[in-house]
């Protein structure tokens, strides 16, 4: 049966979140059980994704508006074009310097082995020699095991690409996920603003530098974006029809449960999604007070997804959560307080009824004014409250280094969090920031006037996320790296509210034109306003991207160099990294990708090297020393000739603090190895 364009757009924009959630529901338990192998995952996961993709979209109601085909086709063209460009420019980040390669190493390990944690394999190296260390960047040593950093969600998805096409296949999965994030955002815009405005929103998001940038790496942000925006899409669809809490089970309740599950599963991907989900708890309390039938299914789905996320964190990523404890523990306490307050407030208001805020005539204008004043506060914040204090000597040192490169006053403690609103302006333009500020003020005014209830959950979640993220981005402030913190919800929120304001302004102008008796001079006013505002949004966004860092690929040649490195190692090799400078960067590459037991020598003295090498030979293994320094290897093993199978000279992203990133820096990576003969 041929789908009408409105129904097709509604269903296809919900599919990414449905498919990702179905896969995670199968893949994560398999990983927890140590059974995440290609065939088991295919046999169980593929039918789950196909069934969910075939059945769940049938629950989605048709849109109220009459949708033509042209916005649907434009959204699809933008999505496909985005995917093609990002695949063509995808990065090859495998050497751990920042987070992308950490996710890549996580992916390779679970795709090859199907379980966690990573064994240290001391028995294949030199036993419990005290000079050896097994910890490296993004890999924590605990007892006899190694635990990779971060949550399992994103690697569980990029593992599909690794199974299909090896390292290259893994690296092109995230560009596809980034494109699906654009598609999902178009669906949310179509529902909240109108299908005819969805292409503009999709285009601005697709053009902005952070969306392109995170989609070229193995980051977790594109997956989180799909789940959170997709959860809002499904929640909107579930609430289109009003049902009472005492009514029989319906498709709306099923869809509400799925929406809650999709939102909760974001926690399997990123632990900080806890903060973004707090408004959903308050919204469920409001649904209960309104006696809506979708309240309990939404709560059940959310609880299931969050439960899986907490197990993912405390079961498979505990050392990572311990590392984050200074910020995570207060967040968990706040979350507990929010849940307790929601329970108590719901119980009290269930008995006595909610307050009649509609009788407070000054409230809507006050809320709108407060929203605008808040944005003004973020704008003047750098002048009044410059932010300091990273809490990390390493971060202080890195910020001081970037400041010296840029000719800024060297003040390593400077966090630049007060610049967060300007970061948004860099990437989507000040016009979008202005339109979004006016848009959120009007949306909140309408909500407090008891109008546009479909905006309540999106506004609660997006406004909360924008406010808390801009207040404290909690990330190293150099760009483009810091833009990660903006791309999941902050930039989509600004674009969404800006497009909503543009649609409202266009309708307002159209009404004004119709009210004029002789409207011929101003008949084109709505078109002019819409076109001018759209250019004001698209222009700066495109300029920042095209003049920035989008014209090159990062770390090109790393895949080929890694394959040469692995091929150069004997099958029974036990690798000792004697260069303390390279150990943290390359140990996961040797262990996870090449599949050889690997350890770092804390003090590479000849005595320690001889003892460890002798221990390897006693186990009938081939001892291999690795270093970035040829001279070091020749001095430690003069009887062997070093080889350099890994050598990369490539472009890498720069770091900037006070302006959008432009140009590139250089990455030079080398690994020399030498096989120590058994005497």
Automatic annotation (TrEMBL):
Keyword Amino-acid biosynthesis: no
Membrane-spanning residues: 12-32, 39-57, 69-89, 145-164, 170-190, 254-271, 277-293, 298-318, 330-350, 362-384, 424-444, 456-475, 487-506, 527-552
Recorded coiled-coil stretches: none
Keyword Transmembrane helix belongs to the record: yes
Keywords: Membrane, Transmembrane, Transmembrane helix
Domain of life where this protein originates: Bacteria
Protein name in the entry: Glycosyltransferase RgtA/B/C/D-like domain-containing protein
């Amino acid at each position: 049966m041929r789908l009408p364009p409105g129904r097709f757009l509604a269903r296809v924009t919900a599919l990414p979140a449905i498919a990702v959630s179905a896969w995670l529901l199968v893949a994560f338990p398999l990983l927890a059980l140590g059974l995440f192998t290609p065939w088991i995952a295919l046999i169980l996961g593929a039918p789950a994704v196909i069934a969910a993709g075939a059945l769940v979209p049938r629950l989605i109601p048709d849109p109220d508006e009459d949708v033509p085909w042209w916005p649907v086709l434009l959204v699809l063209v933008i999505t496909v074009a985005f995917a093609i460009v990002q695949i063509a420019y995808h990065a090859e980040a495998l050497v751990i310097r920042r987070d992308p390669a950490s996710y890549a190493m996580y992916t390779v390990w679970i795709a090859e082995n199907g379980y966690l944690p990573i064994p240290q394999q001391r028995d294949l190296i030199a036993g419990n020699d005290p000079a050896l260390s097994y910890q490296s960047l993004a890999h924590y040593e605990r007892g006899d095991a190694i635990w990779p950093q971060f949550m399992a969600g994103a690697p569980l998805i990029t593992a599909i690409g690794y199974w299909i096409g090896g390292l290259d296949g893994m690296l092109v999965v995230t560009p596809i996920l980034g494109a699906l994030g654009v598609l999902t955002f178009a669906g949310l815009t179509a529902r909240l603003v109108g299908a005819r405005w969805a292409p503009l929103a999709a285009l601005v998001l697709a053009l902005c530098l952070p969306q392109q940038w995170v989609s070229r790496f193995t980051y977790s942000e594109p997956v989180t974006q799909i789940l959170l925006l997709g959860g809002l899409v499904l929640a909107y669809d579930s609430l289109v029809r009003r049902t009472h809490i005492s009514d029989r089970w319906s498709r709306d309740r099923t869809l509400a449960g799925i929406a809650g599950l999709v939102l909760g599963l974001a926690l399997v991907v990123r632990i900080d999604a806890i903060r973004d989900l707090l408004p959903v708890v308050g919204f469920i309390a409001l649904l209960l007070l309104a006696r809506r039938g979708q309240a309990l299914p939404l709560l059940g789905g959310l609880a299931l997804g969050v439960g899986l996320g907490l197990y993912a964190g405390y079961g498979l990523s505990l050392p990572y959560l311990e590392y984050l404890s200074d910020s995570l523990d207060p967040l968990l306490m706040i979350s507990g307080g929010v849940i307790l307050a929601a329970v108590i407030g719901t119980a009290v208001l269930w008995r006595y009824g909610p307050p009649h805020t509609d009788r407070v005539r000054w409230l809507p204008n006050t809320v709108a004014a407060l929203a605008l004043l808040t944005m003004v506060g973020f704008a003047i914040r750098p002048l009044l409250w410059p932010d300091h204090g990273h809490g990390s000597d390493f971060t202080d040192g890195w910020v001081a280094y970037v400041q010296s490169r840029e000719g800024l006053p060297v003040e390593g403690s400077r966090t630049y969090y007060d610049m967060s609103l300007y970061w948004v302006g860099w990437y989507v333009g000040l016009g979008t920031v202005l339109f979004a500020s006016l848009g959120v003020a009007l949306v909140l005014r309408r909500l407090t006037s008891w109008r546009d209830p479909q905006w309540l959950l999106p506004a609660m979640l997006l406004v909360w996320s924008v406010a808390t993220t801009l207040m404290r981005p909690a990330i190293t402030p150099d760009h483009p790296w810091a833009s990660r913190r903006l791309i999941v919800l902050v930039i989509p929120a600004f674009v969404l509210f800006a497009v909503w304001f543009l649609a409202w302004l266009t309708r307002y102008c159209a009404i004004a034109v119709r009210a004029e008796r002789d409207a011929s001079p101003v008949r084109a006013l709505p078109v002019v306003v819409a076109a001018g505002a759209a250019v004001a949004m698209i222009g700066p966004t495109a300029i920042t991207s095209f003049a920035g860092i989008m014209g090159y690929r990062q770390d090109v040649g790393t895949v080929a160099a890694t394959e040469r490195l692995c091929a150069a190692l004997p099958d029974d090799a036990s690798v000792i990294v004697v260069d303390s400078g390279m150990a943290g960067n390359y140990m996961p590459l040797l262990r996870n990708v090449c599949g050889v037991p690997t350890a770092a020598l804390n003090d590479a003295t000849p005595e320690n090297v001889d003892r460890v090498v002798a221990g390897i030979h006693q186990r009938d293994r081939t001892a291999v020393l690795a270093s970035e320094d040829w001279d070091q290897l020749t001095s430690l093993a003069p009887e062997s000739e070093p080889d350099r199978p890994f050598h990369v000279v490539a472009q890498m992203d720069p770091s900037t603090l006070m302006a959008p990133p432009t140009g590139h820096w250089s990455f030079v990576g080398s690994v020399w190895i030498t096989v120590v003969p058994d005497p």
